[in-house]
């Protein structure tokens, strides 16, 4: 019987659907296991062979866990909102919903062909109102909460209001935008509008004036992780800094919990380090500086309080509010010109870039430790959003301050013994402080740090600062609040309207979901408003609690709705919770259901989400945990990043200014331009010339200079991408070899976590392996050849070696090595001509996670009537693994002379006898009688003569 994979795969895919094999329900009798893939954004290009890599791995693991008796939740869905569909809509007028649906259908079709064990009844799409209902709901909850630093959790904003009414801000320890101070009476005296403004300073979802990455080409704000090298990640458009009033999420309030949580989860060290750096905890002090000849004072943040005696100038971030206050009239023109220039650079660029730029403000600040008046400069190496946006500069001990001082010829005062101040070296941080206080400033400050180590000096200075009320000890985090508004159409609408004061009000929960309105254009309006500004029915009737025509806005009972939509990460922040209970219309997830599934046990996805999605979803989850909605503080217990599958690109070489193409090995004789050519019209690096001519109109008339009658293409390993024409579509592989071969082959390419090029050279070998397996059941005949005879010891050994290895390998996500083990086992069983049911049935259970269609078919031909997915996972028996013979190294006076194969269970005396009487021993014994014979069982015989 031939291995007809096409028929087999189709048959079992239909069977699985018809019998609901992958449907899963909460089942308290079984332990749960939750395996999640990062759900895809359904792009127009469809899946390429790189996408399923992680999905195949997680599918193998899910099936394995199920075979081990776990109740496995393994869902899939779509991250369906996003920029590409909207950009496409702008270009073509095609509604993003239409293209998104088409793309989803195509993704589904492709995934179905690969035989995944997803429970599709749990599918979610982030653009569906039933789903984004709960994204909007969480947003309202965030608006109605603040973060208490004492309790380390989010609490209802009402309790903060009560505190304001009782004691004002006294003793307040909460997360906020800026420190505020007022009494209960002052609070009560404020108007409602003022109160609402103040509360925005504390809410977890708040409207704030923030410096944003503005991309005018895309007409929207972008998050830091959506900007790469100063241009938008999508489309590569320029991005500039702009102050805008935006919805923000107070992620920064959770910085310490986000750090602490990392110690409780099983992620790779590199991913944890990436998050730690992104969160960027930094312990230091805030110190106040008075402005000379003025009542003004400002605060700086420093991690090196010990360097107070080496401050020679101060620097403000260009966006700091202080700039305007401290700039003197004489300097104004120069300062304005500088500010204009820095606007064009994003924060990231400013961190990465070492170019020195700056301008003097005209003012001086008084160093509280020395009484020195030092000049206040403005420079974009100081970031507005970090610390206080102002620094004290110590050029002797900080490289950027040093570069700045050198550039602008400012003084440098070294403070640490033996410290090497030069452009290359700033590694004297660990030295002994030696110049503090300086002789000239002794009377000003009684603190002396001389002779202390830097660490001791920092501690002493911090204490001094706090005691003398010169500032305070402070922990800073680099992590910023997330900017949550996008000036785009294709995203979740905010459940927000603006009242007569222009203040935001939340829709009542019962009014959710607030559905995305129709618009006739996807571009900003003529007045520069986001696309929702085109909607004719986009106003909130606060009496009838419904959306009504925009024209009815009277700002009395009918108000304008928010025109921005939520960003891409909104929908992906809590999706894993929704899969637990996808059709619940009363809540995001039922408490009992959440109590059963708890959180994701295994999450597989790409590294590119390290600082975006994986921070936001941890934050979102912690917030819901604080609200008592869910039972786990961390969403993803174990996380694995699959490597990337790179493409193998091919090139043709066009001779300059001609339409003639020269073969690879002749190209050096000409001046040529390499051009990417579609890998699908190249086979083993030989170009299909006819196909090439038909590929593009401009190549119809192409001419070729061949070698040995062929056109040989060049090649390179690059990212797999449409623009490089090196995309390999999994459908093609499935059509040619079957899904089981594709699955095995993707895993066989190499370790899951490593990046590797797609190279089809080995695929035939993997396909042959499945055919050999098939032949164990059918031989060369049309009928099943298996028998119920007792297996031999050798057959059992081969099988149990495999059980042990595959179980261990899957548990360690080493799928490529388990496939090699299968190949070895099949070869062994093939040469033993094994056709025993007792062996082969166990073998196919082991293979079922990897090649589910073939395994299901063979399981049924063996006479089973239920799915192999529920078979019990085989257990290995050490007894069968025992070797029946062992190799002894026979040595004379400690030197190994030859090897001897002996039965494993041969008694010690017998071993000694055989070794001594062996013909090869005679030569080394030199006719003598041995003084002593040492036998290490199973290993060595040492004969001392
Ligand atoms: C004086 C000093 C002396 C500093 C010295 C460093 C070395 P981390 O560890 O990143 O928190 N700084 C403070 N706010 C800043 C801002 N908004 N933009 C750019 N730089 C800023 O670093 C904190 C240090 O970075 C602070 O300590 C401050 O410079 C600078 F030998 O103060 B330091």
Count of DSSP E strands? 36
Summed up, the helix count is: 30
Distance between the termini: 64 Å
Radius of gyration: 35 Å
Which of globular, elongated, flat, extended, rod-shaped describes the shape? globular
Low-confidence stretches: none
Q: Structurally, how many domains make up the residues?
A: 6
* Relative strand content: 15-25%
Can you list the ligands bound to this structure?
Answer: ligand ANZ
Biggest sheet overview: 7 strands, mixed
- Judged by helices, strands and strand pairing, the structural class is alpha+beta
Helix content: 25-40%
How would you characterize this protein structure?
This protein has 945 residues and is α+β, with helices and mostly antiparallel strands. It is built from 30 helices and 36 strands. Helix 1 packs across helix 27, helix 24 packs antiparallel against helix 25 (815-831) and helix 26 packs antiparallel against helix 27 (852-861). The two termini are 64 Å apart. The mean pLDDT is 93. Bound molecules: ligand ANZ. Residues 282, 301-304, 307, 317, 382-383, 386-387, 389, 391-392, 394, 397-398, 476 line the site of ligand ANZ. Ligand ANZ binds next to strand 11 and strand 15. Residues 796-910 form the Methionyl/Valyl/Leucyl/Isoleucyl-tRNA synthetase anticodon-binding domain. One of its GO terms (cellular component) is cytosol. This is Leucine--tRNA ligase. Belongs to the class-I aminoacyl-tRNA synthetase family.
